[in-house]
Design brief:
Elements (H helix, E strand, L loop, with lengths): L3 H8 L1 H17 L4 H13 L3 H4 L4 E5 L10 E9 L3 E9 L28 E4 H7 E6 L22
Antiparallel strand pairs: 1-2, 1-5, 2-3, 3-4
């Protein structure tokens, strides 16, 4: 899923605006002029570039044009995002042998198998996401907030 319209549909105006603003601020902090930072980030987000789009609570899936033998991971879940990389948990592998995907038939190299759970993660650079994965789902924290209005203290919420 790429493009600002798709992202807006996926998470909404406010969450996308907050995300874009954070990426712009990162560039400004690095010395990029504000106007140029805005253009750079919105163009990159519209193109679906991982450095501009990647965020905590996202699921990325392996692109259809990527050979499963070269990339055995089917999906990744972003546990944390920094300005240089994401920390991911391996969610799903091809030919997984057991619930931890660390069994004899797992395609993960033995030294990486321990990263396949949601209690820890592995550092994953943005360019690796761009090469093999595409954004599939995004659950911004705003979706966890209550949607019903809470009456002010001392009122019942009913009209008088």
């Amino acid at each position: 899923m790429t493009g600002l319209i798709s992202l807006n549909w996926l998470i909404g105006d406010q969450a996308l605006s907050d995300h874009i603003r954070a990426r712009v601020n990162e560039l400004v902090d690095q010395g990029v002029e504000y106007k140029q930072a805005c253009t750079t980030v919105t163009d990159a987000a519209d193109a679906g570039e991982a450095w501009a789009v990647a965020a905590t609570r996202q699921t990325w899936i392996r692109r259809h044009d990527v050979d499963p033998d070269e990339m055995p991971l089917r999906s990744l879940y972003v546990l944390e995002r920094t300005d240089t990389h994401v920390v991911v948990a391996y969610v799903d592998l091809d030919k997984a042998a057991d619930d931890s995907d660390a069994g004899d038939r797992s395609n993960l190299p033995p030294d990486k198998a321990a990263h396949n759970d949601h209690t820890q993660g592995v550092v994953y650079p943005f360019d690796a996401l761009d090469m093999s994965f595409e954004l599939a789902a995004w659950e911004p924290f705003e979706h966890l907030l209550p949607t019903a209005a809470v009456p002010a203290s001392g009122t019942t919420g009913a009209e008088e």
